[in-house]
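ok so for the tutorial part 2 we go from a plain amino acid sequence to predicted structure tokens. step 1 is just haveing the sequence, like this:
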Amino acid sequence: MKNNFIQRAVTGALFVVILVGCILYSPLSFGILFTIIGALSVHEFAHLVNRNGGVSINKTITALGGAYLFLALMGFCTSAIDARVFLPYLGLLLYLMITELYLKKENPIGNWAYAMLSQLYVALPFALLNVLAFQNSPETSSVTYNPILPLSIFVFIWLSDTGAYCVGSLIGKHRLFERISPKKSWEGSIGGAIFSIASSFVFAHFFPFMSTWQWAGLVVTVVIFGTWGDLTESLMKRQLGIKDSGNILPGHGGMLDRFDSALMAIPAAVVYLYVMTMI
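step 2 — the prediction. this is what the tokens look like for a chain of 279 residues:
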């Protein structure tokens, strides 16, 4: 028990240091980190659905697709290249569709569905981090790298998870979604939300490119959709009959276990910020 706690603590600390450090250090380190994370997460998703039986998708090709989508959107958002950068990615999607005509696999429709889902559910959210990170400046017609927006998404999720665990452990009685995740409570979720909303005032003070209410709105968006993202992965794991999505992070499970909340929170944050005309 003690060794497992130490393992979790060390892995968790390294995970946070690497993630925060790479986001803050430079656009290059940000790009390298999330290209790797995106590819590993898609590969892990493909591995999980292949284990379920009756489905067989190409783990390597789908993982490469996830990596390419991130890099393509990064190039597009930084104005390094135009929309033609997405043509090879469209070719890859066509390849995944067409090859099923010739492979004579047991469940081609399932293979098509899960291959596309790997890109929509896993690859696309990581790629959308570029929309948060890179912003056009109308005055100078240049693109600037703002690491605070993508970093804030993860900080809000971490604070929400920590607050939910602490409050839920102390006073959690009413189940949030017992059918899918019996340990989550309404009290914990509300407590986690309060933790995160409190942090929005800190972000508003130190990073006033958004108002306090805009930061608070972003927090609420991230917390709500992050909770749905967590529940979505829990439902997927129940369907597949597994406890963890993988073991790449000792004591913490797989990549999808670590980023489940972000997979819905990131697209929701992008929509929110576009609605608020901040991007």
